[in-house]
Write a structure and sequence with these properties.
The structure holds 2 protein chains of 2 kinds. In chain A, helix 7 packs parallel to helix 9 and helix 8 packs antiparallel against helix 9. Chain A is an alpha+beta fold. Chain A has 3 domains: 82 residues, Butyryl-Coa Dehydrogenase, subunit A, domain 1, CATH 1.10.540; 109 residues, Butyryl-CoA Dehydrogenase, subunit A, domain 2 (Beta Barrel), CATH 2.40.110; 146 residues, Butyryl-CoA Dehydrogenase, subunit A, domain 3. Chain B is 52% helix and 16% strand. Chain B has a 4-stranded mixed sheet, covered by helices on one side. A 4-stranded antiparallel sheet of chain B has the order 2-3-7-6, with no helix packed on it. In chain B, strand 6 and strand 7 form a beta hairpin. The radius of gyration of chain B is 21 Å and the shape is globular. Chain B starts with 6 loop residues before the first helix and ends with a helix. Classes of the chains: A alpha+beta, B alpha+beta. Chains A and B meet through strand 9, helix 9, helix 10 and helix 11 of A and strand 3, strand 6, strand 9, helix 9 and helix 10 of B. Bound molecules: flavin-adenine dinucleotide.
Chain lengths: 398, 385
């Protein structure tokens, strides 16, 4: 055991840092990851990375992965977090991509993997339905075989950023008579331009348009778009969820968040002194950082196991629970730090949500909405209650 | 000891509850909040008609003879309905200053208007760098002959876009943050040198940045003692805080009830999610937090006329407890609703936002915990002498 980077790793860090410095697009500098970016803003960095061959580091090399070690991937996240980089969205790179290269046909790999890597094709995730959230296997959307096509009918919901999407991966019921609900499900890919797909916005409590209802009415999709075998979609869906969870810890981003919080607390005043000099508040930041360190080293242990070919197993639920609790706490403390200036609301008030009216400090103007928005993290990706159920069953064996 | 409400108080509660039910349903509120005005003056007129705006004032002052408990009753109902109209800024704060310290002439000129709803006050105390400290003032009122000249910038003045008048705190003597040297003034919004920048707040209300540039004031605008208004400001601040606690109680109660109801009807894994024990216990925790918040609100409201230290301790204790309770109740209400809790369309998220923002008004948990601790230390020091 050893915490030090090798000289090669340090060289790698320097290379990565220089690359980011030189190539991170000017037009998205300082924006940070937010729900209300344009499609171009979301994709700007992804496209640069695609050209460089760094957009999907975790993929096997033969599909365009970088072959980096766990430590290199760790360095990669850290260096990106340093500049608040807007990273490639998970739906293509971390979700459907791995499903396609693991279970898909050669044609599907050839058709889809390049677009995912380059950032030219935007994917969204059609899992949840109004009646099927935590109990995903109870989903009702059907796909019925009709000659060379599946005809899909049903409603998906909470589809993140579907308004920008080119393709969607959909869990559909193909065998309504299967003995268990999990057994009759298939994993199907659909072009969002297919007639019968309609996307309707859902506005969330922070005022942003991040999620959507996706209505599917007689959507005809070629049978070639079935991934793997018919009625075995649940296996692929679970495989994908485990991948989704491990990315969700967001350690590097949260570390950067703690840094920013410290800056805010150094600027905000309490009785004429920086808030950071207030013992109570400083201890809260310390506590958060300690929790984050515990998460970081838990993630590093998990990655080390993974690089020996184990996992991601149910341990990834720890990363999801702790990671999201920390992300939420960060926004909670930020809102607390900004005091009275947490109240002004800028969306709709100034076109682009910027603080052009100069009301309160810049760092305050998104504090409330960010806190409200982050409540989602303990709900999505398998709620934190469901994660605890997974640990109960899979690890404790209860 | 008596925890019953008077007949008048029960009547206020019932008629206000009916009015809100009939004219302040969630969809109506949403469209009002999103409208240009952001409130309904005609609703304010109806509140006046019901007598709400005169309820907390003595009969001598032209009121109905009630007090802080009446304000508590009103604000709890406001909390249940997520009412945005400015009862705390105008009636509790503006009215509070006048009731405690207004001259006969001032009461005549302003208090009658507050009670009839024709005048609306907002309380301009917070400043960009002052956080929750009432004495941390950069705003100054320079003495100028018999009058004053007011200069400064007040931050996030709730209800200011709808106000006709402000009560403004300013330094008239001493150094920044000194207890002595603080004065309070009544300033008409249309006075020369007053400008505002209005904006919505994250929880559906309206506020302004208010700027004063060489605003000429006379001694008639002064409310309370010159250089010695801090105790008055703190007293009114405490009354406002207690009223906000009541509002939070109302909002928490609804958020909890809606969550329990949702858990009865929302099914996953073939059963209502309310059957999952982990959620049951959490809803029990929410229930206990809400109950304790009500207890603390009563306690603090009943102690508002006690000597200063006792009053401050009571109000701080309540605000601490309610800040903590609000966090749990608000967060869990959203959590248990799942994705639905995240939507603008459902009321529960709006309750969550309002409950959240109560914490940062008139001092958050940390501020009041510190104030409480400092007061305990002061008491011990006195006892030791
Ligand atoms: C912002 C956001 C983005 C999303 N993006 C996507 C997306 O792109 N694609 C997609 O398919 N889905 C997406 N989702 C949906 C998300 O996966 C679901 O919200 C989640 O699975 C929870 O389902 P639900 O909302 O129906 O809540 P429910 O399943 O109804 O749960 C309600 C509450 O009950 C609890 N609960 C449920 N079952 C149990 C149990 N057995 N034991 C204890 N507690 C339980 C839950 O934890 C929760 O607190 C998104 C959700 C949000 C909020």
């Amino acid at each position: 055991m050893n915490l030090e980077f090798t000289p090669e790793e340090i060289a790698f860090r320097n290379e990565v840092r220089a690359f980011i410095e030189e190539n991170y697009p000017d037009e998205i500098k300082g924006l940070g990851a937010r729900e209300d970016l344009t499609r171009e803003q979301f994709l700007a960095w992804h496209k640069v990375l695609g050209k460089k061959g760094w957009s999907a580091p975790a993929w096997p090399e033969k599909y365009g992965g970088t072959g980096w070690t766990a430590t290199q991937r760790y360095i990669w996240s850290e260096e990106n977090a340093r500049v608040d980089a807007i990273m490639p969205l998970p739906f293509g790179v971390s979700m459907v991509g791995p499903v396609i290269y693991t279970f898909g046909s050669e044609e599907q790999k050839a058709q889809h993997l390049p677009g995912i890597r380059s950032g030219d094709v935007w994917w969204c995730q059609g899992y949840s339905e109004p009646g099927a959230g935590s109990d995903l296997a109870s989903l009702k959307t059907t796909a019925v075989r009709d000659g060379d096509h599946y005809v899909i009918n049903g409603q998906k919901t909470w589809t993140t950023l579907a308004q920008h999407a080119d393709w969607i991966f959909i869990l559909c019921r193909t065998d309504p008579d299967a003995a268990k609900p999990q057994e009759g499900i298939s994993f199907i890919l659909a072009d969002m331009n297919t007639p019968g797909i309609e996307v309707r916005p859902i506005i969330t409590i922070d005022g942003s348009h991040e999620v959507n209802e996706t209505w599917l009415t007689d959507v005809r999709v070629p049978v070639e778009n079935l991934v793997g075998k018919e009625n075995e979609g649940w296996t692929y869906a679970k495989f994908l969820l485990a991948h989704e969870r491990s990315g969700i810890a967001g350690v590097a981003r949260s570390k950067r968040g703690v840094e920013k919080l410290r800056q805010i607390a150094s600027t905000e005043l309490i009785d004429g002194e920086p808030l950071i000099s207030d013992g109570e508040f400083a201890r809260k930041i310390s506590q958060l950082e300690i929790d984050l360190t515990a998460l970081e080293f838990t993630e590093l242990r998990t990655l080390a196991r993974e690089s020996q070919g184990k996992g991601p197993g149910p341990e990834s639920s720890i990363l999801k629970i702790k990671g999201t609790e920390i992300q939420q706490r960060l926004t909670e403390l930020t809102l607390e730090a900004v005091g009275n200036y947490g109240a002004p609301y800028f969306r709709g008030f100034s076109e682009d949500g910027s603080n052009e009216f100069g009301i309160g400090p810049d760092y305050a103007h998104h504090a409330g909405p960010a806190y409200f928005n982050m409540r989602k993290t303990s709900i999505y990706g398998g709620s934190n209650e469901i994660q605890r159920n997974i640990i109960t069953k899979m690890i404790l064996g209860l | 000891m008596d925890f019953n409400f008077t007949e008048e108080q029960s009547m206020i509660r019932d008629s206000l509850a009916r009015l809100i039910r009939e004219q302040y349903d969630f969809e109506t509120r949403r469209s009002v909040v999103e409208s240009d005005a952001g409130w309904r003056p005609e609703m304010w007129a109806q509140f006046a008609e019901l007598g709400l705006l005169m309820a907390p004032f003595s009969e001598e002052d032209g009121g109905l003879g009630g007090g802080a408990i009446d304000a508590m009753v009103v604000m709890e109902e406001f909390g249940k309905g997520l009412v945005v109209e400015p009862f705390v800024p105008s009636v509790v704060c503006g009215g509070g200053f006048l009731k405690h310290a207004g001259s006969v002439a001032q009461k005549e000129e302003y208090l009658a208007g507050i009670m009839s709803g024709e005048q609306i006050f907002a309380f301009a105390w917070a400043e960009p760098k002052g956080r929750y400290n009432y004495a941390d003032l950069e705003t100054t009122a320079r003495k100028d002959g018999a009058g004053f000249v007011l200069n400064g910038h007040k931050a996030v003045v709730i209800g200011a876009p709808w106000a006709s008048h402000f009560v403004v705190t300013a330094r008239t003597a001493g150094d920044r943050r000194d207890r002595a040297g603080v004065s309070a003034f009544i300033v008409a919004k249309d006075a020369a040198g007053v400008t505002t920048r209005d904006y919505p707040t994250v929880d559906g209300r309206r506020a302004s940045e208010v700027y004063f540039e060489n605003v000429a004031l006379s001694s008639e605008h002064l409310i309370g003692e010159v250089d010695g208004a801090l105790s008055l400001v703190e007293r009114v601040g405490d009354e406002a805080t207690a009223a906000l606690c009541a509002e939070a109680c109302g909002a928490m109660g609804v958020a909890h009830a809606q969550t329990v109801e949702y858990s009865r009807t929302r099914k996953q894994f073939g059963v209502p999610i309310g059957k999952f024990q982990v959620l049951q216990h959490r809803m029990v925790d929410m229930f206990m937090e809400h109950e304790q918040s009500i207890s603390m609100t009563y306690m603090a409201t009943l102690k508002l006329d006690e000597p200063e230290i006792e009053r401050k301790k009571a109000v701080s204790a309540a605000k601490v407890r309610i800040g903590q309770a609000g966090r749990l109740v608000g967060q869990q209400a959203v959590q248990i609703h799942g994705g639905m809790g995240m939507t603008e369309e459902l009321a529960v998220g709006h309750y969550f936002k309002r409950i959240t923002m109560v914490d940062s008004e008139f001092g958050n948990v940390d501020y009041h915990l510190k104030r409480y601790t400092d007061l305990c230390a002061a008491e011990m020091a006195v006892a030791a002498e």
